[in-house]
């Protein structure tokens, strides 16, 4: 199963802005976080603080991702 991933801000420094991730089975957002941290352990601090969106909708950690899902990893931001 393939997922299309887009990252922003600091997360982009770890993974690049766009990448495709191939996984064996369907997974939840929580499992995706675990996989990303497994791939880049140094990203754990930021990945665990990010929100995840599928297409244009922010989703919870228990959402099951489908084949070719368009996943956006959105780090926390601060305003001024």
Percent of residues in helices comes to 25-40%
Low-confidence stretches: none
Q: Return the structural class.
A: alpha+beta
For the largest beta-sheet, the strand count, sense and barrel status come to:
5 strands, mixed
Number of helices: 3
Number of strands: 7
> Hey, roughly how much beta strand do the residues contain?
25-35%
Helix-strand topology string? EHEEHHEEEE
- Distance, first to last CA: 40 Å
Envelope shape:
globular
Oligomeric state, counting identical vs distinct chains: single chain
Rg measurement, Å: 12 Å
Sum up the structure in keywords.
80 residues; alpha+beta; 5-stranded mixed β-sheet; two-stranded antiparallel sheet; 3 helices
Structure description:
- By secondary structure, the protein is of the alpha+beta class.
- 28% of the residues lie in helices and 34% in strands.
- It has a 5-stranded mixed sheet with strand order 2-1-7-4-5. Strands 3-6 form a two-stranded antiparallel ribbon.
- Strand 4 and strand 5 form a beta hairpin.
- The relative contact order is 0.28.
- The model has no long low-confidence stretch (mean pLDDT 94).
């Amino acid at each position: 199963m393939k997922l299309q991933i887009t990252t922003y801000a600091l997360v982009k420094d770890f993974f690049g802005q766009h990448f495709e991730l191939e996984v064996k089975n369907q997974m939840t957002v929580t499992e995706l976080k675990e996989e990303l941290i497994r791939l880049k352990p140094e990203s754990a601090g930021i990945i665990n603080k990010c929100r995840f969106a599928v297409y244009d909708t922010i989703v919870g950690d228990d959402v099951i991702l489908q084949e070719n899902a368009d996943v956006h990893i959105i780090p926390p931001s601060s305003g001024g």
